Amino acid sequence: MEFELTLQIAALLFGVAMVAGFIDSIAGGGGLLTIPALMWAGLPPAVALGTNKLQACGGSFFASLYFVRKGLVDLKAVKLSLICAFAGAALGTILVQLVDAKVLELVLPFLILAIGCYFLFSKKISEDDRHQVLTPTAFAFTAALGVGLYDGFFGPGTGSFFALAFVTLAGFGLAKATAHAKVLNFSTNIASLIFFTLGGKVIWVLGLVMLAGQAIGATLGSRLVVTKGSKIIKPLVVTMSLAMSVKLLASQYQLF
């Protein structure tokens, strides 16, 4: 497709990506900003989604790198979950081309809203690890695979779903769950990017400009996760869950 990347558009999308990367590293939902911005710039929906995955890879990579360096994530311990998340996202990207996603579109806003309510009202969420419900292997083949499949198939709220799974099923504290959620989200982003690239749906120059913005925002947000923990994570997760639910419902009923 023909697309003219002007300096003004590049600067604006860089700024949007930086804010989205900051939000994404803490609570997820940055796509609420970047996807509409890409479509405003003139990209068709499929190309906007593909280019968005490229820039999202930058944010999730730099956030993951920061969390690993700070010792919040042991990559060896989540290796199987990373593989399962990647495989799930790859399968979901294939399925979305074959299956009608209308049912998921109807249910999803309420699922994301439920996540926000859980984080808002649950007294179990804290910085401390608790008893795990699933073994790491069981978690990999259920939660990691399932959320990965969802991310490839649809996408909104993936970080929140991963974080909720780590809190409720793996018994992780909130900061640790957020860190692990971002690492798995990087794996699913890479899987989806590969398939979008094969389909010719990625504008690389624009995606790389936004990736730079994502890297800055994600690094800043990741530092707040480490230093502030649940004080900043819980309010932002609740806020982004509400925003995503409203946005998805509004899109369904064409309110704006």
UniProtKB/TrEMBL annotation:
Keyword Cell membrane appears in the UniProt entry: yes
Membrane topology term: Multi-pass membrane protein
InterPro entries membership: TM_pro_TauE-like, TSUP
Annotated localization: Cell membrane
Main location: membrane
PANTHER family: MEMBRANE TRANSPORTER PROTEIN YFCA-RELATED, TRANSMEMBRANE PROTEIN YFCA
Record family assignment: Belongs to the 4-toluene sulfonate uptake permease (TSUP) (TC 2.A.102) family.
Protein name per the record: Probable membrane transporter protein
Organism: Shewanella mangrovisoli
